[in-house]
Specification:
The protein has about 230 residues and is mostly helical. The chain is built from ten helices and no strands. Helices cover about 80% and strands about 0% of the residues. Keywords: DNA-binding, Transcription, Transcription regulation.
C-alpha cells in the first residue's frame, strides 16, 4: 500500500508539473503569436473537418487555450474562418496575378497561370481544401464560386485582347474567362485527390485542351443538335 501511495503522489506531482509547463507556454506567447497559432490550428481543423465540423471547443483544446481566448482574438469560429480564407485567397491570387502580369504570349500566359494554381495546390493542400469547401451561411467570401470569379476577373482583359486579334467578339471574354478558370480549378481539385500525374503533365494537358480549343473558336457558335 505505501508503494501505491507513492505512485499516486508521483502521478499527482507529474500532473501538476504538466499543468505548470503548459501555463508557462501560454504565458510566453505574445498576443500576435497566439493569434498566429490559432490561425494555424483553425486552418488544419477546417481542412480536415470543414467549417461545420469544427467547434470552438476543439480549436481551443488543440491550441491549449480556453474558449474565451478564441473569442477574444476572432469573435468566434466565423471570424477565425474568415481570416483563414482571406489569407488563402490572397496567397493564390498573388501567384496567379504574378503569372498574368508578365509580358508574354497568350499561350505562355495560360501555361504560367495553370502552373501557378497547381503550385499553390502542391504547397498549400490544406488551404486549397478549405477554399473548395462550401463557405458558411452568410459568408460573402471564400466559396469556390467566388474564388473562380476573382481569378477570372484577372483573365478577362487578356482574353478580350486575344479575341480582338482573332476578330472575335470581345464581349464574350468574361464568359470564356469563367469557363477557362473553372476548368483549371476543377482539374486542380481532381489532382489534389489523385496526385499520380506530375504537375507539369497536368498543366500541359490543361493547356492542350484550352489553347487548341481557343485557337479554333467559331465566330458565331451554334448548337448543331438544333435545340434552343
Amino acid at each position: 500500500m505505501p508503494v501505491l501511495g507513492e505512485r499516486r503522489g508521483m502521478m499527482g506531482r507529474v500532473t501538476e508539473r504538466e499543468r505548470e509547463a503548459k501555463a508557462a507556454v501560454r504565458a510566453r506567447m505574445t498576443g500576435k503569436q497566439r493569434r498566429e497559432q490559432l490561425i494555424e490550428v483553425g486552418r488544419r481543423l477546417f481542412a480536415d473537418k470543414g467549417f461545420e465540423g469544427t467547434t470552438v471547443e476543439e480549436i481551443a483544446s488543440t491550441a491549449n487555450v480556453s474558449k474565451p481566448v478564441v473569442y477574444e482574438h476572432f469573435g468566434g469560429k466565423e471570424g477565425l474562418y474568415a481570416v483563414v480564407v482571406d489569407r488563402e485567397i490572397a496567397a493564390l491570387l498573388e501567384g496567379i496575378t504574378g503569372a498574368l502580369a508578365a509580358d508574354q504570349s497568350s499561350r505562355t500566359t495560360l501555361e504560367r497561370a495553370a502552373l501557378a494554381l497547381l503550385d499553390y495546390i502542391e504547397s498549400s493542400k490544406d488551404g486549397f481544401r478549405i477554399l473548395v469547401r462550401d463557405s458558411p451561411t452568410g459568408q460573402s467570401t471564400g466559396s469556390f464560386a467566388s474564388l473562380i470569379s476573382d481569378v477570372a476577373s484577372q483573365v478577362e482583359h487578356i482574353l478580350a485582347a486575344e479575341f480582338k486579334s482573332r476578330k472575335l467578339d470581345p464581349k464574350a471574354a468574361p464568359l470564356y474567362a469563367q469557363m477557362l478558370v473553372g476548368m483549371v480549378a476543377l482539374t486542380g481539385q481532381w489532382w489534389l485527390d489523385s496526385p499520380k500525374m506530375k504537375k507539369a503533365d497536368v498543366a500541359a494537358h490543361l493547356v492542350n485542351l484550352a489553347w487548341n480549343g481557343l485557337a479554333n473558336l467559331e465566330k458565331k457558335p451554334t448548337l448543331r443538335s438544333g435545340r434552343a
